[in-house]
Amino acid sequence: MQLPVGKERQVATLRYNLLTDSDTLESLGELLENEYPLKLYRANDIKQITMNYLSSERREIAFFARKLIEQIDDMEKKMKQIETEMEAKRGNRSSTSSAAETSVTKPTPLSEHAISSKRTMPTLFVPKKRGATSIACQKTQKPEVQIPEASRISIERKMREKRMFEEYLEKKKVIAEEKKREDSIKVSKVMNAFEEARLKRKQEAMRAGILGGGSTETEESEVQQKEMVMDY
User: Where is the composition biased (Basic and acidic residues) (predicted)?
Assistant: First the structure.
């Protein structure tokens, strides 16, 4: 699919394709693969338009639509998280500065009894029992973590979806290479046909003995055919 230059125009073109149900699978694939900025998705209502394809009869289209919506949802969550963190940082800075200005802590003086007790009471020494092992040093055997059935199914589904998307990208690459090869073959055939025609005209001119008089017409014909090849 040939897309215009510029992300804004590209997303607008893909939006038009989705609205008109033309090149739907390729358009969804382009939106997924390129990961355009969130503001372009929002400006073109890509999420709302894509929801229409969740119930598509074609499995690939429904799958790509779901993946694109999930991708946009993730981008929105990340954006919201960033905004929340920025708000929290601004709030923490303001509360910290105000608390530092208003609160002043003073040390509490010790009583005479506490001072005398601290001077006279000796430090008790408790001998360590031999052979005793602290509970913290004992190795505890970690139980095996059982993955819930729902989580296992979700993981398997994500793996299948990942493989499906990779297969799409690989198929897209093969198609592009095949088209490039076909175009190269077509150009080669045109060039060969042009060369054969040129040689044929030259041979006919030589047989007729009109190389001098007919050279201008022959050259003009060759120029026209070259222009046709370049336009192709």
Answer: 223-232
DSSP 8-state symbol, 53: G
Task: Quote the radius of gyration of the chain (alpha carbons, Å).
Answer: 39
Sequence-ordered list of residues with C-beta below 8 angstroms from that of 27, at least 6 positions apart, any chain? 1, 14, 17, 18
Sign (positive or negative) of CA dihedral 87, 92, 98, 102: positive
At 206 the three-state DSSP class reads: helix
Distance CA 84, CA 91 (A): 11
Q: Is 46 exposed, middle or buried (0-12, 13-18, 19+ CB in 10 A)?
A: buried
For residue 226, which amino acid is it? K
Percent helix, strand and coil across the chain, each rounded to 5? 75, 0, 25
Question: Cα separation of 11 and 17, whole Å?
Answer: 10
pLDDT tens digit string along 2-38?
A: 778 889 999 999 999 999 999 999 999 999 989 899 9
